[in-house]
């Protein structure tokens, strides 16, 4: 069924808007549809009236998007003149979810911007240009009016512990001179795992802060979007534009905005809001406004902003509690994360652990309930103290129970990671199937997918991926290191088994005969584990670098010492292979015994030299060309043989260790498949 739509100019003429309901349809038993307004990413929006005649806007959420009502009451109870009121979220008899909200008759900022651009064009043609009109075609007073109103609405959301997440001109309305912010909270309540039919319009990406790609949804993302909107209102252009979402994303991550067309007074605020690092942006809306040469006390709206922020709660923290990490459309597009969460380019392996998720959701529910609790601060304090007292009184059984839970949970958690890492190798690479799904999601006409032309060079993609790697938290790096360490331990076990079975096939099985194999497996594992750890610091930048060689050499020296100590402990004969091709009498006495057995110094020098000569950051680099390069293994073995000519160590153990470390490191280190470039 097709209806005329109010905002038809927002869609290409070839795609008429389709609405499920026709005028006069009765929905939710009490609203009569008058007309369809528009179709957005989440569903259709209608203008409707209740039986008593109240005008409302109804948003019909797409059938395949599951609406999570947890915490929605927090949004429903927000009241502010600069926010479009949410009246209700309910289901009809077909279990279809609907959002009932205030109807705003006026235009949205997208339309205002488009009209202003048209007016500007017409004036240019007529060679008439009023002095106050900005390059965008808007008047400066108009820009300030919109910016003030939107800021006030956003400040109120932040003070209530909410982050909008989807600020863009299409979501900002002019209601008879009052600016209203709409669509807040919605993206949060639509479960990411059920958004398979949802296609992000390209417009959405223009306003997305770079950190959204990392699943960060602090209020700084709203300040970033406000900066983009202000830029657009002032210049009529977007600071970061491109033909595809990917191109826009890369610009958000790497480019600086061109502020030359922005009037002087607004450059500072825009440049601060568009900082890549959220910490460098204004702390809150009040600080942002203080950067604009506006008198913040002058208008009632401004006074409201100041008030809202002065009794501001720590919105970022609260919002982060509330915000789940579920939705990262930017991340999905930028880093290849797939619906259903099977493969992602820069995935934290613990992101979807079901028990942790359930606990987090419970805490989110509890904190949302606590915030929504309408009672005096005194009663809240009494409740909080009582809860703490109850916990303290029950520690005698709570602590043992929690310890037991931890006792079983931690090994399960670790095992799950290891299994996931092993069962879905490479953990960093999107599968082909997922990739095709993904391109469908990003394409508005899936029937005839347009030919993709390469919009990014390999260097740009690497920069994008490095950017993502650089911004990961220490905790996620540490978690990944430990997971890689576990994986390498398993690989070491397999190596030990294979090598000992092959090596001891004709000798009797004794602990002494097994010792050299155990020694080698341990040294290989230690070497790889150290390199994996150091690699976590290297992964965010490309490079050769003397520092890297020195760090590798230092780790090589440590490994030599460990190898020596372990050799002694396991009573491994350390002179084998030395006398065969090297004259023991010619060896320096400070490094070798008279029998040719290497001392600790020789082992340290050998591995330091080896690790300093080889480029040890290559096998740990997630962006290496192939996951397991046999060429790298060959180079390591030959390199070891060359080093052996200078500082000999037992052979063939030395060569096996060198090759083994490179194999194990490559197998255990995360890896981005090179053709992920096509996806990104
Ligand atoms: N409360 C409202 N009153 C009047 N018009 C509205 C209201 N809410 C949305 N609209 C209009 O309905 C149309 C569709 O809105 P919707 O929010 O679904 O889409 P969007 O904002 O373009 O995309 P998305 O939902 O993906 O962010 C837009 O033209 C919007 O201006």
UniProtKB/TrEMBL annotation:
Region annotation Disordered: where it falls in the sequence: 426-456
CDD domains: STKc_PknB_like
Any Pfam family the entry gives: Pkinase
Membrane spanning stretches: 381-410, 481-502, 514-538, 550-571, 600-617, 629-647, 653-672
Residues bound to ATP: 59
Domain Protein kinase: 31-302
Keywords attached to this entry: ATP-binding, Kinase, Membrane, Nucleotide-binding, Serine/threonine-protein kinase, Transferase, Transmembrane, Transmembrane helix
Bias (Polar residues): 426-446
GO MF terms held by the record: protein serine/threonine kinase activity
Sections of the chain in a coiled coil: none
InterPro entries listed in its UniProt record: Kinase-like_dom_sf, Prot_kinase_dom, Protein_kinase_ATP_BS
SMART domains registered for this protein in UniProt: S_TKc
PANTHER family, sorted: MITOGEN-ACTIVATED PROTEIN KINASE KINASE KINASE 20-RELATED, SERINE_THREONINE-PROTEIN KINASE NEKL-3
Name of the molecule in the record: Serine/threonine protein kinase
């Amino acid at each position: 069924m097709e209806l005329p739509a109010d905002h038809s100019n927002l869609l290409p003429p070839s795609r008429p808007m389709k609405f499920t309901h026709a005028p006069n349809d009765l929905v939710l038993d009490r609203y009569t549809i008058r007309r369809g307004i528009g179709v957005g990413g989440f569903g259709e929006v209608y203008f409707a009236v209740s039986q008593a005649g109240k005008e409302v806007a109804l948003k019909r959420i797409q059938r395949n998007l599951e609406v999570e009502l947890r915490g929605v009451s927090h949004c429903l109870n927000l009241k502010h003149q600069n926010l479009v009121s949410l009246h209700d979220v309910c289901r009809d008899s077909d279990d279809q979810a609907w959002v009932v909200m205030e109807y705003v008759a006026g235009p949205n900022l997208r339309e205002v911007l488009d009209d202003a651009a048209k007016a500007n064009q017409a004036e240019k043609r007529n060679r008439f240009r009023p002095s106050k009109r900005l390059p965008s075609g808007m008047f400066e007073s108009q820009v300030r009016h919109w910016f003030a109103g939107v800021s006030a609405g956003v400040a109120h959301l932040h003070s209530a512990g909410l982050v909008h997440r989807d600020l863009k001109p299409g979501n900002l309305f002019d209601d008879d001179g009052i600016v209203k912010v709409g669509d807040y909270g919605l993206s949060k309540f639509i479960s990411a795992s059920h958004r398979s039919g949802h296609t992000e319009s390209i417009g959405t990406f223009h306003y997305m802060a770079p950190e959204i790609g990392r699943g960060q949804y602090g209020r700084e993302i709203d300040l970033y979007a406000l900066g983009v909107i202000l830029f657009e209102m002032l210049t009529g252009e977007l600071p970061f534009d491109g033909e595809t979402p990917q191109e826009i994303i890369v610009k958000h991550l790497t480019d600086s905005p061109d502020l030359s067309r922005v009037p002087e007074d607004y450059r500072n605020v825009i440049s601060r809001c568009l900082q890549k690092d959220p910490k460098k942006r204004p702390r809150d809306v009040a600080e942002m406004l203080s950067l604009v040469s506006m008198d913040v006390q002058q208008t009632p709206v401004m006074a409201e902003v100041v008030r809202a922020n002065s009794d501001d709660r720590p919105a970022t923290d609260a919002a982060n509690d509330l915000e789940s990490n579920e939705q990262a459309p930017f991340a999905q597009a930028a880093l290849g994360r797939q619906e259903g969460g099977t493969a992602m380019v820069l995935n934290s392996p613990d992101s979807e652990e079901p028990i942790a998720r359930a606990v987090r959701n419970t805490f989110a529910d509890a904190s949302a309930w606590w915030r929504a609790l309408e009672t005096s601060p005194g009663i809240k304090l009494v409740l909080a103290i009582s809860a703490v007292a109850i916990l303290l009184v029950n520690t005698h059984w709570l602590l043992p129970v929690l310890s037991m839970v931890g006792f079983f949970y931690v090994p399960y958690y670790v095992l799950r990671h290891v299994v996931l890492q092993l069962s879905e190798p490479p953990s960093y690479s999107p599968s082909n199937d997922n990739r095709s799904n993904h391109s469908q999601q990003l394409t508005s006409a899936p029937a005839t997918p347009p030919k993709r032309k390469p919009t990014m060079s390999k260097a740009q993609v690497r920069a994008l991926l490095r950017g993502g790697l650089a911004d990961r938290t220490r905790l996620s790096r540490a978690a990944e290191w430990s997971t890689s360490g576990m994986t390498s331990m398993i690989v070491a076990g397999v190596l030990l088994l294979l090598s000992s079975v092959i090596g001891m096939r004709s000798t009797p099985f004794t602990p002494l005969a097994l010792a050299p194999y155990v020694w080698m497996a341990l040294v290989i594992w230690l070497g790889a584990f150290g390199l994996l750890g150091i690699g976590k610091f290297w992964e965010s930048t490309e490079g050769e670098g003397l520092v890297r060689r020195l760090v590798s050499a230092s780790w090589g020296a440590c490994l030599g010492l460990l190898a020596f100590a372990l050799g002694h402990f396991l009573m491994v004969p350390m002179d084998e292979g030395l006398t065969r091709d090297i004259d023991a009498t010619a060896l320096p006495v400070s490094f070798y015994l008279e029998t040719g057995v290497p001392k600790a110094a020789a082992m340290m020098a050998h591995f330091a030299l080896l690790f300093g000569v080889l480029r040890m950051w290559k096998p740990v680099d997630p962006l290496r060309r192939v996951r397991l390069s046999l060429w790298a293994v060959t180079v390591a073995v030959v390199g070891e043989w060359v080093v052996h000519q200078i500082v000999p160590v037992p052979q063939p153990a030395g060569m096996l260790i060198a090759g083994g470390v490179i194999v194990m490191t490559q197998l255990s280190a995360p890896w981005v498949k090179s053709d992920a470039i096509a996806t990104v």
